[in-house]
Design a protein that fits this description.
Chain lengths: ~325, ~450, ~300
């Protein structure tokens, strides 16, 4: 897997790199920080001049006014929590998954697990091999959290640790979760996972500030779930899984704007028209959960269904 | 109606008091028994410390089977605790007399198991350190909050229903326990609440018992209905059922009834109270158990036959797992050995005698335990969407040694509470038995005064 | 530690499988492919058409030739690569589009023959040895100007071309597309309009485009992607969008909402039932303390 830093890892570096920053001419440190879009309070080098050079996310060296950096400033954890619980006003996030394009490349899974500090067997988004009744053809189906409008999971949470925000996202606050796992039992889409033991790289993430919109660092004994990369949405970027897809499977957008953008081709189309033209559907509509994820049927496939077992964790469930 | 038949001869008050306080004074097997229970609990505590340290990963639970033995035990404990209500409240209120020597035993079982049911939930939590969040951020919409409320209420009412009929017994204890340690006498002094045997005091206590006995009925129904709702309020195959409330309640009565049979046997033999808990009582309790089991069987038929007739896809997966699949052995053993065969056997009078009752009771209780297991786990193995791309251990479940140790700690803990109560207070209400023997309040007061002088 | 090892192991297996997959499945291009010829001569114009098709069908994995944005994980080559170009002539490339292999889908039935050849021309145009005829299309500087008519909700776009000498003149027959800015991209709206002899075109703004709560919207006018005119664009803020009536669902009293939004019926039932039971319990507890009194 690529060793590109996840936002959390970058944030982590922020702490250790401040010293290097002063010593080594402060390029790399601030660059990682900027890349994460979370800039620390740069009081440590207040006397370093009016403008400083930093390494931008795309590798270019940028000259940035120091005061500007301060302005962006890292949101303190309490603010991340409050904002994270409120959501982004005026938005209604929506995802459309085109099953005709999925060929189980699992780039979405890898990007997601990388960003959210997940182990290989922990999924916020999982690509399932679906085989319906009779002679219907099998197909691949990416399954993220459906971010239901009538979420059975937040209904049962005893402590408001999992909650729905005004922009439609269902998040989990792992600093409040008591680990009762009622939400896992309640979710008909099996979209939730639990940190049964220490999460991946627990040492590395030890001092990272908790961001409820990224749910990192993960904590032992708490539930985790897909959150449509709410931290990226705040920066008007599309979720990790959406942009990682090489095949144009994912469309993502704002229902209020009636537009969705393809994560691969970056093409933007009319959301309702896309659903109408392709006879879109939602998963398990009979349960009344009102998902915010739509599926386009697996017709006009770009790739034949071919499962070569390359993504199988050995000895998988057979029945 | 039948309360007189079994009495051959009247017992004197001094004999009753002597018989019932004797086990409190000296009881030779007591210390090893307590040590045995504490040893089991020590093992459980060790297991729990490891679980806290390493996380719930030490259990066999994983992302799909996310509830396991702990939750199954929780339902089992709540179920066992429910019998207190049936015996002391329902039967007491309608004036059934043969429950007099059993009522307090049932109440002790209720207290022990209800308290530990609350603890098991904590063992199941991933972050027990955050238990206060339930009070800080509690959501009234969550069935867990309802459950905590109702379990607490039930424990409180059960304690009162244990305490109230105990108060008139305290004078006997105060008089006969002069040789006992100071702390014990202190407890008796506090719990007497100034009870002196006045008619007004008897009247007041009887009134309070009556209030509590009425109140416990809806609360007890609520405790188990809400527990069933933890499951029935989800969208899962096998749990998504409208009869889960009554199904659980009747199942609970079966479990508790069998537990009472076992306790009756142990107490009547170990405390040498055969004269008080007679074959007649076993016979009656056996008949009651048959009735309860028949009702439970009826709910079982509804719960399994109705979906089995329709065989919706997921129901089919779930039920075939139970009927013929990997849970079949356990399922049929539980249904036959824990329900159907006990029903048939207990229809015969001979099988309602003490020793057969004990054996059947044990079979029913074990069956009831695994029935809870069968309600909890197979459903979780049949989610709406397939279990894929995960290690094999995610799609099976059998509890680890840690889970068994912690569960056994809970069982030992509940038994320990029952044991301690039985060592502090008489296991039967002396005054009620005296009343039934035709001894008047005046005679009782006289007896207490006499001894005092 | 154990998990890290496990993760490494899985990554290893994963890479190994992908590796073996790509190694085992070698392109097996038959010799005759080399001699496959198109019916038409390659021209820049056709290559330009091919570019549009390339963007639609191939860019996901290969990236634009020469930019190095190809998907290395599935071994999709950068088609501008000199080595690649030297190893594959037009016929062989055409064969690859047609047949597909492994991760590369087959376009045999998905694209017309001419389209496939146009893509081939476009890709081969990155090979300096490849002969391509016609006038090379040079980018000129196009300029769009926008005027709005609020009453009729129409936009009047004027297109002009600035030539080498810096002289601007209205351009006839320019196709202009309109977009609205959406959070992750620009959404095409309405029909393409074509400028008249004065270089102007009238665009009727659709009624159903959602704006913010004041109906504010950002609109972008662009020359239809064409090298003849460059990619001139002009944006404007309008308040012609439909007004957004945003209702925060979390403020409603629901079963899934936070505790301070608990439905009234539930709150009342809970308080009445729990309160009633506990008042009774407290009453009984109080009465127990009265036992002593009753004895006097």
């Amino acid at each position: 897997m690529k060793s590109k830093n996840t936002p959390a890892e970058k944030k982590d570096k922020k702490l250790t790199s401040r010293r290097n920053f002063l010593k080594k001419g402060l390029l790399a440190g601030a660059g990682t920080v900027l890349g994460a879009g979370v800039v620390g309070s740069f009081d440590a080098f207040a006397e370093s001049g009016d403008s400083i050079k930093v390494l931008g996310p795309d590798g270019k060296i940028l000259t940035v006014d120091k005061s500007h950096l301060k302005e962006i400033g890292a949101r303190p954890e309490s603010q991340m929590q409050t904002e994270g619980r409120e959501g982004i006003p005026g938005r209604k996030w929506i995802k459309v998954i085109d099953l005709g394009k999925c060929r189980n490349a699992r780039m979405c899974v890898a990007a997601c697990q990388h960003a959210h500090q997940l182990k290989p067997e922990q999924y916020h988004v999982n690509v399932l091999r679906m085989d319906r009744e009779g002679e219907t053809a099998p197909f691949f189906m990416p399954k993220p959290c459906q971010h239901c409008d009538d979420p059975p999971c937040t209904k049962v949470c005893p402590v408001d640790a999992t909650f729905k925000r005004q922009d439609g996202l269902v998040l989990i606050d792992n600093e409040r979760c008591i680990g009762c796992r009622f939400c896992i039992a309640a979710c008909p889409y099996s979209a939730r996972i639990f940190n049964w033991t220490d999460p991946r790289d627990v040492e590395k993430y030890k001092d990272v500030e908790y961001d409820v919109e990224l749910n990192v660092p993960q904590k032992k004994g708490t539930v985790s779930k897909c959150l449509f990369s709410a931290n990226l949405l705040r920066e008007e970027r599309m979720p990790y899984c959406v942009t990682a897809c090489p095949n144009g499977v994912y469309w993502f957008g704002d229902e209020n704007e009636n537009a969705v953008t393809n994560g691969t081709t970056k093409e933007t189309v009319n959301f309702k028209k896309l659903l109408k033209d392709n006879a879109a559907y939602v998963l398990l509509p009979e349960l009344g959960t009102q998902p915010r994820v739509y599926y386009l049927p697996e017709k006009n496939r770009l790739f034949p269904y071919k499962y070569n077992g390359s993504t199988e964790l050995k000895k998988e469930h057979s029945s | 109606m039948s309360e007189v038949k079994h009495k051959d001869q009247k017992k004197s008050l001094s004999k009753i008091v002597d018989d019932l306080t004797r086990p409190i004074k000296r009881h030779y097997g007591f210390t090893p028994w307590i040590l045995f229970l504490i040893a089991i609990m020590a093992l459980g505590i060790w297991a729990y410390i490891i679980q806290i340290r390493d996380g719930l990963g030490v259990t066999a639970m994983r992302d799909y089977v996310s509830w396991g033995l702990y939750i199954a035990s929780f339902i089992f404990f709540i179920a066992t605790a429910l019998i207190g209500m049936l015996i002391s409240a329902v039967l007491g209120l309608i004036g059934i007399k043969w429950i007099t020597p059993i009522a307090r035993i049932a109440e002790m079982i209720a207290i022990g198991f209800a308290m530990w049911a609350g603890l098991i939930i904590i063992f199941d939590m991933g972050r027990p350190d955050r238990i206060l969040n339930i009070f800080l951020h509690g959501r009234l919409q969550s069935p867990i909050v309802w459950d905590i409320t109702v379990v607490t209420t039930y424990v409180a009412i059960s304690l009162l229903l244990y305490l109230l009929p105990l108060i008139p017994d305290i004078p006997f204890l105060k008089k006969t326990m002069k040789d006992q340690p100071k702390w014990k006498q202190k407890i008796y002094e506090i719990l007497s609440f100034g009870f002196k045997g006045h008619t007004e005091q008897y009247k007041l206590i009887k009134r309070l018992i009556r209030i509590m006995a009425i109140l416990i009925i809806p609360v007890a129904l609520a405790i188990h209905t809400v527990t069933s709702w933890l499951f029935a309020l989800t969208l899962r195959v096998g749990w998504d059922s409208t009869i889960f409330g009554p199904y659980y309640v009747t199942g609970a009565f079966v479990t508790g009834g069998a537990a009472v049979l076992i306790a009756m046997f142990i107490f009547s033999r170990d405390f040498r109270l055969k004269e008080y808990i007679t074959d007649f009582h076993f016979d009656k309790m056996g008949k009651l158990l048959v009735l309860l089991m028949l009702v439970y069987l009826y709910f079982n038929i509804n719960e399994y036959l109705v979906p089995a007739y329709k065989m919706k896809t997921l129901d089919e997966h779930h039920l075939s797992g139970l009927f013929t699949g990997k849970f079949a052995v356990m399922f049929w053993t539980v249904q036959l050995g824990g329900l159907i065969i006990p029903i048939i056997l207990m229809l015969f009078k001979k099988m309602r005698r003490p020793i057969p009752s004990l054996i059947i009771g044990i079979a029913v209780v074990i069956g009831a335990f695994f029935k809870r297991y069968l309600i909890t786990i197979p459903t979780l193995l049949h989610p709406h969407l397939p279990i894929q791309n995960v290690p094999a251990e995610f799609s099976t479940y059998w509890p680890t040694a840690f889970e068994w140790s912690i569960t056994m700690m809970a069982v030992a803990g509940a038994v320990l509470i029952i044991t301690i109560l039985a060592k502090l207070f008489p296991i039967m209400p002396i005054w009620e038995i005296a009343h039934e023997e035709g001894i008047t309040n005046e005679e009782i007061n006289q007896f207490v005064e006499e001894k005092n002088n | 530690m154990k998990h890290i090892l496990k993760a490494r192991k899985i990554t290893f297996i994963f890479t190994l499988l992908i590796f073996s997959f790509s190694v085992n499945a070698q392109w097996n291009i038959p010799d005759y492919a080399k001699d496959t010829k198109p019916n038409v001569k390659p021209t820049y114009k056709l290559a330009e058409l091919g570019k549009q098709l390339f963007i639609k069908n191939c860019i996901q994995c290969h990236g634009l030739p020469g930019e190095g944005k190809n998907n290395k994980a599935i071994n999709a080559p950068d088609l501008g690569n000199v080595e690649y170009q030297s190893k594959h002539n037009a016929g062989q490339f055409y064969y690859q589009i047609n047949e597909g292999m492994g991760f590369m889908p087959s376009f045999k039935d998905k694209l017309a023959k001419e389209d496939k050849w146009n893509i081939t021309f476009y890709v081969k145009s990155f090979d300096e040895n490849f002969k391509i005829t016609g006038e090379e299309i040079k980018t000129k500087n196009g300029v769009i100007d926008l005027k709005k008519d609020d009453s009729a909700k129409t936009l009047i776009a004027t297109a002009s071309i600035v030539d080498k000498n810096g002289i601007s003149k209205p351009s006839e027959g320019v196709e202009i597309n309109f977009f609205v800015k959406r959070i992750f991209g620009n959404l095409p709206i309405g029909e393409t309009v074509i400028t008249d002899q004065n270089g102007t075109a009238v665009f009727k703004f659709p009624d159903d485009i959602p704006g913010d709560k004041n109906g504010k919207i950002k609109i972008i006018a662009k020359f239809k992607d064409s090298d003849a005119y460059g990619t001139a664009m002009k944006s404007a803020e309008l308040n012609w969008g439909t007004h957004l009536h945003f209702v925060n669902p979390v403020l409603e009293r629901t079963l899934w909402g936070p505790n301070n939004r608990v439905p009234i019926w539930l709150l009342l039932s809970f308080l009445i039932v729990t309160g009633g039971v506990w008042l009774t319990i407290l009453y009984v507890v109080f009465q127990i303390t009265q036992i002593k009194k009753a004895g006097k």
